[in-house]
Structures are given as C-alpha cells and as structure tokens.
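Worked Example 4.2. Consider the chain below.
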Amino acid sequence: MSQEGYDKLVAELRELETVELPRVREAIAEARDKGDLSENFEYHAAKREQARLLSRIRFKQRVLEHARVIDMSRLSTDKVQLLSKVEMANLDTGMKMNYTLVSPHEADLREGKISIKSPIGQALLYKKVGDTVEVRVPAGLLRLHILNIQL
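Applying the procedure from the previous section yields the following structure tokens:
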C-alpha cells in the first residue's frame, strides 16, 4: 500500500481507539446506571455499537499488521502496476479517464483510486502504453486504450 494510505489507516485506527471507543464505553456506563438491563434499550444499543466498533478496530489492526508500504523509488512506468497513475481512453465513447491503482483498502472512486483487484484494475495490470484492454463490467464491455503511465 502507499505511505499515504498507511498513514490514513493508522490515523483512523487511532481515532477509533482514543475517541470513539471511550465515548461508547461512557454510553454503556450511563445506560447501566439507569437500572434494569433486560429492558434497557440504550444499554443494548450501546453494547451493539461497542461490538461494531471493536470489530472495525480488529479489522484495521489486521490490515496494518499485514500491510507493506511500497517504496515508490523502486517502481517504473514501463507497465501498469500497484500505485501507477494510468491515463486511458474509452474507445467506445472517446472519453479520457485517469485512475490510480491502489490496494483494496485505499480504493476511493471519488479520488480516482481504483482497487488493483477490481475488474478494471485486473485488466490493466502489467499492460503498457499503447495497449488496449477489454473489461467486462456490469454495464457491458469496456474497451480501454492506455495513453500514459505515471507514478
């Protein structure tokens, strides 16, 4: 994963552990003080929220545990690979697109980051400038021509 993605994940985990979890624990304590737990909706809702939060924390910890930050200086622009910025044209519409191939945990279409495991990411992987790829997507068949590869 990229250093930026790693740092973002660390910040999210820190936020969950230092802000969100104490807030939920406080809500549980408040609800517990209200008496009978068997019919206490606030208590059960807070416990569900705590379970959801702990699950997210464990997931992010596992991702970080197995993450490897890619050294950008070792990458080249001769073929599409993880962290490549790819400029391509849709041959059917003529529309140009720019995407960065990232790990599944960093994917965000609004930022132009697509997962290397997505159908488009898989089709582009290891292709070179000038290559044309065909990708089957839910909307049909996409024909993309690679115009440029950057880091």
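The chain has a mean pLDDT of 89. The beta strands are 85-90, 96-102, 113-115, 132-137, 140-150. Compare this with Example 4.1 before moving on.
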